[in-house]
Amino acid sequence: MSFEVMVGNKATATAVKLARVNVASAFPVTPQTTITEYLSDMIANGELDAELVNVEGELSSHVVVQAASRVGARTFVCTSGPGQLYMHHPMHQTSSDRLPVVMATVHRGNKSMQPDHTDLMSQLWTGWIQLYVEHNQEALDTCLMAYKIAEDERVRLPVVFGYDGYVLSYTAEPVEIPQQEDVDEWLPPNRPMPSILPDEVDSNSFGMNIRENDPQMRWKVHHEAILDTKDIITEVNESFGKKFGRNYGNGLIEEYKTDGVEAFIVAMGSLAGTARAAVDRLQNDGNSVGLLKLKCFVPFPTEEIQKLAANVGAIGMIDRNVCLGHGGAAYTQIRNAIYDIKDRPSVLEFFAGMGGKEVRVDDIYNIGLKTLNAAKDDKVHTAEVWV
After folding, report:
1. Which of these three, 200, 223, 244, is where a domain ends?
2. I need a labelling partner for 216 at 20 to 30 A (CA). Which of 17, 30, 191, 284 fits?
């Protein structure tokens, strides 16, 4: 192992190199652009034996890796904000055809150059496994784990991991880099496999309207396959920890100081790091508030959240996204997850960091206090709070 101080985009590019990707493609869009610049340098310097395909737009970059994956290549694509929206159509096809493509989304708000999670949350129905990253070390590690998950013969699904633009993409932190031989041992080359779609689905047809006896079967199989990946994600997280000395909770969620608390905050991405500092202060001041970090959003860790929620009086969800006219995606999922709990806690909705708005430790400290107060009263809390 070696250490290097690097920005998040270089951490991702380094992981792509360590994974020995065969084909990569991307169209430059801030703040993702430098990932491809780092990869281009690595290929030019002979550090990475891969094809980096330059294209005229994001949709084309996705179709390139889709086709390469179809013939057995290990592939990588990356984008941000509006580029993610341009990829929306082929993302459906990639997942429907069970292609183990890995994508990095460097979060950028669609109304701002600065980060929020609206870009990736807008892809929830595309059928991709979604992982979220707190810091640069986790970006490198999650990229490697994404290949291990996607290419598992029990999965064969695309994986996207997201991290906050500027806050991580262009900010330098110390990152521990695994040795190439250790990565090779843990992550063997991608092995092309025959279609794992059921016989009822014509897997030789793609890019067109497919005639099937039961067209709904494709959605049923796909949905069940994603739900079944929870155990594999947990396995990969555990095996990564054994090999490299780091893991992230159980791979789905990560708890921080939640033992015996009366309430907890839920955060995703880089805000989870700020929330850790806030929880430290809250508990030092005698406030019984912990932190739950959502690492995996698709599949959603319903059972894990239910177990934690059964022992607290309130949950404060910090959403860095909003479905306009509806609410935060994570807030909605949390409420749905705990609906069947007999004595379910209150769930409070906090919008923070939208469009890159700064979120300070004091802000999350106050979120913790409001959540704790809700745990101690009998009121119904439905109001949204914009921080």
Report:
1. 244
2. 191
DSSP at 259: T
Cα–Cα distance for residue pair 303/313, rounded to 1 Å: 18
Structural tokens at position 78: 């990356």
Torsion sign, CA atoms 328, 299, 339, 293:
negative
- Residues 6 and 120 both lie in one domain: yes
Based on the fold, state whether residues 207 and 229 are members of the same structural domain: yes
With beta carbons less than 8 A apart as the criterion, state whether 177 and 139 touch.
Answer: no
Are 97 and 191 in a shared domain?
A: yes
273: domain CATH number? 3.40.50.920
Runs of H (alpha helix) within the chain: 8-18, 33-44, 58-70, 81-86, 88-96, 118-121, 136-150, 180-186, 216-227, 229-244, 271-284, 302-309, 329-338, 361-376
Give residue-wise pLDDT tens across range 24-56: 999 999 999 999 999 999 999 999 999 999 999
Give the tens place of pLDDT for each residue, 121-175.
Answer: 999 999 999 999 999 999 999 999 999 999 999 999 999 999 999 999 999 999 9
Model pLDDT for residues 306-340, shown as the tens digit of each residue: 999 999 999 999 999 999 999 999 999 999 999 98
CB 88 within 8 A of CB 121: no
* Together in a domain, 218 and 297: no
Count the Cβ atoms, other than its own, within 10 Å of residue 307: 12
Residues 278 and 225 in one domain: no
Beta-carbon count within 10 A of 59 CB:
18
Closest alpha carbon to 141 in 32, 21, 19, 290: 19
Asked which of 218, 244, 270 is the last residue of a domain, the reply is 244
Residues 290 and 355 in one domain: yes
Signed CA dihedral, 172, 178, 181, 184: sign only? negative
Both 65 and 103 in a single domain? yes
CATH code at position 52 = 3.40.50.970
Query: Cα(364)–Cα(385) distance, rounded to whole angstroms?
Result: 12
Spell 341-358 as b/e; 16+ CB within 10 A means b.
eeebbbbbbbbbbbebbe
- How, if at all, do strands 129-132 and 159-164 pair? parallel
